[in-house]
Design brief:
Blueprint: H1 3-6, H2 21-27, H3 29-48, H4 61-72, H5 76-89, H6 92-104, H7 123-160, E1 165-170, E2 173-179, H8 180-200, E3 204-205, H9 215-220, H10 226-235, E4 240-241, H11 252-280, E5 284-286, H12 305-327, H13 338-343, H14 346-364, E6 367-369, H15 371-379, H16 386-395, H17 401-409, H18 416-424, H19 430-437, H20 448-453
Parallel strand pairs: 3-4
Antiparallel strand pairs: 1-2, 5-6
Length: about 450
Amino acid sequence: MYSFTLTSISPLDGRYHSVLIQLRNIFSEYALIKFRIKIELDWFIQLSLIKQINNLPYFSEKDYKFINNIYNNFNENEALSIKNIEMKTEHDVKSVEYYIKSKFSLHDKLKNFKEFIHFGCTSDDINNLSYALMLQKNRRLIILPYWKNISFYFKKLSIQYKNVPLLARTHGQPATPSTVGKEFLNFYYRLQRQIKKIKKIEILGKFNGSTGNYNALSLAYPEIDWQHISRNFVNSFGFTWNAYTTQIEPHDYILDFLSCIASFNSILIDFNRDMWGYISLNYFSQKIKKDIIGSSIMPHKINPINFENSEGNLGLSNAIIYHMNAHLPLSRWQRDLTDSTLLRNLGVIFGYSVIGYSSLLKGLKKINIQQDIIKKDLDNHWEILCEGIQTVMRKYNIKNSYESLKVLSNHNQIDKKILRNFIMKLNIPKQEKEKLYGLHPSNYIGYASKIVDFL
């Protein structure tokens, strides 16, 4: 525990500090500055390779190594020097430009070409690609690994419990049985759809000046095809080139990205609530370490805190996503700065999500199924067989099939004996009666087990 975690306003940097270490390398202020440096330097290198820009000389391999090392050797102390510059300029991107110029001043050749740093750029040329790098890296290193790991557990539990019958509950009332594995499978399938979806989301980028028209660049070098240069530059990062923008990339793809995150999170919130209920019914118990305390006053308590924690944090993540999605695509005329402060909170979205994912995984690893309790619950609800019996009666065109079972079951305690007596009086073939005699709440599961085998 670091002392600063005790004085942090946000639990992301306080209580949950250790869970979010990976995210700091992607979404912190330090990470944003470093991404900006990469874009600025790569743009300078791009310019140096354009033959028509004869103002820039040939640079040697050693020169390019010096340029790249500004990024490769960047550290927190260097970031602090940029923040010191920003205290004077009160402009974050311009401070990065001045920092790089100070580095070029240390090189005999590069010091003469400092004015080609941030050449023809507006701040969002740098920023939109920096945030795109964040999301690209986050998807590859954080989101997909977490999502695949969670999905793996759902698949594993689907297979493990595919034959364990479960009293279903619709509207909170006893209903047609399923199996525990089939219920896990429902969530697995939903999660898999989001995994496929997020992989396909294109990350867009633009690099076209103050209002998206290459005004300054085309004035300085009218003979150069700047659209072609822009496309190649954006594509070089693995992004899709957006040719039609104002000063800013309009963030529509970020909405797609965040909406997918929100959908995945909502599915898990749904699951967390189900697990909370199953644990309250004692369908699942929880492994607990010797010194763990569930309640400060009730010694017997083992609360479903991991699923509750997951639900709360995923809900916070989604709340911010909903605000982002409502406001990120809006920009007054060609530019306002509303999006700037919103984008700085991308890390908050993924911070709460990661806490939610981590808590869920922790909860899944602690659960033990209580098959005896599940079976006992099934044994106490023979009324759920009325659905199947009245359906077989309909097969033989018995009038008022549904209504007769409704009278039998409504407000009455039904057991095996009552149902057998009812079946005995039915005017249906002997083999059908024998089939109905063999019904039990634990074997009336339809294709539930087979559906899991379709995996």
